[in-house]
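Model it.
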Amino acid sequence: MMRGTLFLTLALQLLACTSAPTVPLEPPPLMEDTTPHHADTDRDTTLDAAEEPSPRPGGTLTPRLTCAPAGDPCAELSPIEEIFASYRKDAYVSPEIYDEYTQPPLDGGRFHIAGVATTGGPVTDVLIDGMSITELVMPPTPRLEWYHVWPDPVIIGEPVWVAFHSRDPAWDSSTEGSVTVLTETGVALEGNFPVAITPAPLTYVTVTDDLSSFLIHVQNRDQRPHTVARLLINGRDVLAADMACVPERTVAPGRTALWKLELCDPAEPGEPWTVVVDWEEAPAAVGVGRVLRPHFPIEAWPSSADCVAPGANNDAYRAHLDAGFDTLYLYWGGRSGCAYETPELVNEILPQATDEMFVLIGDDFLNRASPPQDAITDTSRVAGFLTGDESDGQIYDEDGAPRPENKAAMARRLWAAYPEVSVYNGAMTSGHVGTFAGKVDVQGIDVYIAACAPYIVFPDPPRPLTAPHDFLLNTRENHMPLTTWFYAQGLHTGWNVPGADGTLHFQPNPHEILLQAMMVLTSGGKGLMWFQTIQSEARHAPERWDAIARSNWIIRSVRRLAREGDITGAAQATQSGKDGAPADVLVEAIHSPDGLLIALINTSVVEAVDDIACITAMLNNLVPHWVLDSQIVDIEFPVPDNIGLHEIFEVTTALETVETHYYLDVQERTVVIPSVSLTNELPIRLFVVAASEKLRPEIDAVLDQAEEPFLPAAKQDD
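Modeled.
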């Protein structure tokens, strides 16, 4: 497990040949923003008060493109009885920057195959190129690493899809394959599918919070425009029927688009969905999946020592609620010595509680629950099931059996027993995650950069500050258009080591906590998860618990936009007053139906944490931390044509919304937010571009639930 004390092994290997570098002191605690709620003054502080920008009028915009579909969403449409498919090569980060032990995944990739069932019934087999899919995953030389077919049983006239991943290089020289889905009553799907990579893929498909509509995000990654000829959702051409809101059919090079389809009846979690964007002069973009409950978890993996559950350690449980958590990771077998049983917690206590708390059930469920299909009588507070944490360490067992198929088989069992519940899997590598991504509903990964946390990359070269963002974004690229929940670095005693004067607490400082949490947004995450939380470490340095809580409430206030929206890459930042020189930041624009989120992270490094510093820290008795330089930047971004601009405000670390001053080029629909200050203590900024007056009250209502101070639980008596 990468979450252990791996750097101690490196220390033993390198200690003899290292010299002690200058190790930075711990930066001061998180500075709170004291700007009043709904302040009319600009909070964009600069390094010099004399350089503070004067108030500037902003202005508003109306949507340039609108649509009012005339088609009846309840009209019966004839299915398109064609088979569509997309082929996706695995993505990975640069080995020159991230020298992990895996090899670049150059051969094969993932398929999404969509069709409409011509008969129904339980699935008996799936054939790919005439071979049974169950045989194709068998060792010692499997052709597939995992597969899925959904739904099961199949319903005649309704969508049916097949997904699989293959590292067989033969696919890279193929132009088509064949698929057959067999059921107890006959052939449900049969025909050839193209082996083609689209230049304009689906990046994210989801449903609105009320389950009333599908949201479809696409991106044209080509150098020429592409025009959609047909938009098929669940096998029906909703564009031809004028049911879908597609304001403009042509997507310009490098641009993203967001389309919406209102449904006749609300979608139900567990239902299959297929989306096909049939481009006029390019391979189709195809996505397949299951409807998930619209939940953006703010999740903690609590230490077993804390017994975080109502009726067990109530103080620790309340501390998590106050800190903005709404999801807990718990093993079905419970915690040794804790006064609760997970089945009772899931089926009775949490569903009846007034506080909203969910659970992510551990990967021991299928082994411990007896029988699993009858163990949960109320799934209303079950955020999901875990099939494995950091499970992509190796692709094949010693006998050649593909490990991803083991997790996919777990998912199929869980889907059959509880189709309404999401299934999640965690990862830790860049090179293997593409093989695993897609085998479950939700993919995650954890990569930490603060306080010498264990790391998948070898000591040379040193880890970049942006490593979490880069690995998380790579995971999103491999799993899209499906959902991702990503981890941020919390508090874990397993990283601590004995020092000359007592325990050395190798834990992230407040600014390192803030920026890693914000990287979940900049990489397209739809859930914020923390490894780990433990109240002893929170009591040791309460400012760290405070930073976790502020991160939670900031993201919780905008999570509907983040979950319904998707990253675009459309924002950029330059150094203020330096003629457009690029700024040392991560900046991202997230496009949702109700506006934009502009997330900004300071990446200007003065002192870095590398393996040498971590090793010598044990000799110096001083924990190294990242130190960031102060900078002032201008942010520029376009307002998408399908939304308006009513106002721009910031969600601050003081958990308030404050006015933001900006320049607006009405003709070009571009916005500049000038002179945004970033420091070591305040390394993140989050702006909301609201399309209407309704958005700010919604965000304020969430922030009003946060009650300071955010304190850890008091120590329990033995």
